[in-house]
Amino acid sequence: MCGSKDGDFVTPGDKIGVIEEYEPGFGTYASDGVVRSSLAGMVERDVKNHLAVVKPVKEPLLPRPKDVVYAVVSSLSDKLASVMIVSVGNRLLSDYLTGLIHIRSSSTSRVRTLRELFKPGDIVRCEVLTFKNGVYHLRTQGPGFGVIYAVCSLCGTPLVRARRGLKCPVCGNTERRKTTRDYGSVRLRWLI
Ligand SMILES: [Zn+2]
What H or E segment, with its residue span, contains residue 69? Predict the structure, then answer.
């Protein structure tokens, strides 16, 4: 009969069936009367319509240059912010990835230290610049990028936008961040 069952994982060249049984559908080809897989994926046989297809395996979700990602600030120095990338757009990653924001890619205005812009725990929206040495290099310049969610460093309450900077609605503490224009109104499936 055939070399693989329905739902089996196959790789290019694997035998799926014979031409008398199945017509070669998407992801397959026929050669010498044998239907084989042309890609890596899962076999699906439609017995009624005598059709065999291979559904390609989804490639893992990874950020690419120019992608918008969301990340949590994990640590800060004057020149470098280390972040954990959590999602690409609204699509949550299965595991977080390490990202870096260098001070020169952080803001269009002059800043002395990144501590003026971020605090550990902030959620930031960034654009991916490059992937180098196992790390994503990110930027937060412009009104669309920066902190979208931050909590009060005294009491942990989410900060709200105030006339100047951010304010804690509970203890009245005011703080500064490099926020996005839509700070406080971003609804991410994984965040709320
Ligand atoms: Zn507070």
Answer: strand 68-76
Which CATH number among 2.40.50.100, 3.30.70.20, 3.60.110.10, 1.20.58.100 corresponds to the domain 9-56?
2.40.50.100
CATH superfamily ID and name for 68-175: Nucleic acid-binding proteins (2.40.50.140)
Measured in Å, residue 11 CA sits from the centre of ligand 1 at 56
> Does an H or E element contain 101, and which?
strand 91-102
What span, in angstroms and rounded, lies between the C-alpha atoms of 22 and 69? 44
In the three-class reduction of DSSP (H, G, I as helix; E, B as strand; rest coil), residue 105 is classed as helix
pLDDT tens for 72-121 read 999 999 999 999 999 999 888 988 999 999 999 999 888 999 999 999 99
If you measure from the C-alpha of residue 141 to the centroid of ligand 1, how many angstroms do you get, rounded to a whole number?
A: 27
Determine the distance separating the centroid of ligand 1 and the alpha carbon of 168, expressed in angstroms: 5
Q: How far apart are CA 17 and CA 23, in angstroms?
A: 9
Q: In this predicted model, which residue has the larger pLDDT, 5 or 95?
A: 95
